[in-house]
Amino acid sequence: MDFERKKDRSIYYWLKDDVFSDADWIKIVDAYEDDEATIPSVAIKPDIIDAEAVQMGDRRQYNIRLWYLDIYAVNKDQRADIAYRIMREIDNGIPILDFDEGFPPDVTPTQIGAIIVRQKRFTPIDVNPELVEKMYWRGSITMVEYLSQLN
User: Is the pLDDT of residue 82 over 80?
Assistant: First the structure.
């Protein structure tokens, strides 16, 4: 499996098995659900990868990566609780797992590194109740990875 894809999957399992291990009623989804949305949920959307050279003359570079974690909640307090928990846990780094060994719960993959988040931002998203049938409380966490540490 490609290293960048391992990072995508690692964020999913970090949220599911670490951050919200005590809250299995919060659904974690990779990208967006095909069916009707489950509330509360957190959707992971990988985005831009940008490469930045670190030294002239060699080919070493850092990949700067952007992720969005979209939160869908029942009310304002639930949205805040989910967002604040994720924001707090980001500071500990996100383990990168070797999914070539297999996937949980059948296998516990080896940690091969960690995603170090340089910037994080929580943005509440206002939804106009006149435009939607049922108003869900939304928010988005933007994470900017600057460096992945390898073990």
Answer: yes
d(CA 42, CA 61): 31
Give me the residue spans of the domains in the chain: 3-150
Number of Cα atoms under 13 Å in the Cβ half of residue 131: 4
Higher pLDDT, 55 or 148: 148
- Judged against a pLDDT cut of 90, whether residue 145 lies above it is answered with no
CB 67 within 8 A of CB 30: no
Burial of 124-145, coded b for 16+ CB within 10 Å and e otherwise, reads eeeeeeeeeeeebbebbbebbb
Q: Does the domain made of 3-150 have the CATH classification 3.30.2000.10?
A: yes
Q: How many CB atoms lie within 10 A of CB 19?
A: 22
Three-class SS of residue 147? Answer: strand
Distance CA(27)–CA(13), nearest Å, equals 12
> What residues have CB less than 8 Å from 24, skipping those under 6 apart?
none
- Segment 120-127 shows an average pLDDT of 91
